[in-house]
Amino acid sequence: MSDTYLVIGAGGTQGGAVARRLLRDGHRVRGFGRSTAGPSGVDWVRGDLADPAAVRAAFDGVTRASVTLPMEFEPAAVARHVDNIVAAADGLERLVYNTGNRIPVARTGVAAFESKRDAVEAFLSSGVPTIVLRPPVYLDNLAAPWARAALANGFLPYPLPEGHRVAWLAHDDLGALTAAAFDRDDLTGTAIDVGGRDAVTGPELAAAFASVLGREIRYVSVHADTYEEEMAPVLGAAVAAGVADTYRWLAAPEGIGLYEGDADKVEALFGVELTPLRTWIERNIRTERNAGAML
């Protein structure tokens, strides 16, 4: 019988990308989360990370697990989730924790950063064989409906200063990096910054979109307050405020460089070929436009 891989958060965009990659590689995949909407082929266990019994049931018979925690930044709640995972993961061969964001070197006072920092420390000190992946922001954010609407009008808005160089990562590449990490005994106990093939500034990002789409696109640096106001109806007020706080921190001088990356190092370390920026735009924006999408 083949190994069973548990993907916590398989109903979300990041966990879903991991589940799709594992399925593509021929693995048995069990998904766990509040929602069972996700990739076809996943065996679902519905539950909440706050419920120890549900988490134990999800881990039953599992050899390896990918963890993407919910977008919740209250320290005590995140700690409960991590504690329940660690308690249920006894005997696990490998756990790969995706932080969903980079983590600044020094403590910031920003709950969305610090809850992830605490989770990393808890997993790495738990005795469960763990590898931590710390991505920057995702290219797939730029395919969201709000981004598509702006692109249709010649703008590419994002709540990062235009001069920040960002190694935007594709969800598909996150899936590939996670799958590769499962087989890397030598990386156990480490936390690794991962990112995409191309690290670009805001104007360079817009220029890549303009080149592929064949029309002018201008990058617009959105203020974090505006982002919070616009995202609150989508994410909920608490989550939108927590995420906006990260962008407020990133807009300050100490935020420069947090989202940069060394693609050659990541590719060599994991044996994964990262998706070039223009290729991602061709596949995810231009192709859908040609098929009659908004763009």
TrEMBL record:
Query: What's the domain of life for this entry?
Result: Bacteria
Identify the residues that the record assigns to the NmrA-like domain, covering every copy.
Answer: 2-241
SUPFAM superfamilies in the record, alphabetically? NAD(P)-binding Rossmann-fold domains
Q: Which InterPro entries match?
A: Ergot_Alk_Oxidoreductase, NAD(P)-bd_dom_sf, NmrA-like
What is the designated name of this protein?
Answer: Uncharacterized conserved protein YbjT, contains NAD(P)-binding and DUF2867 domains
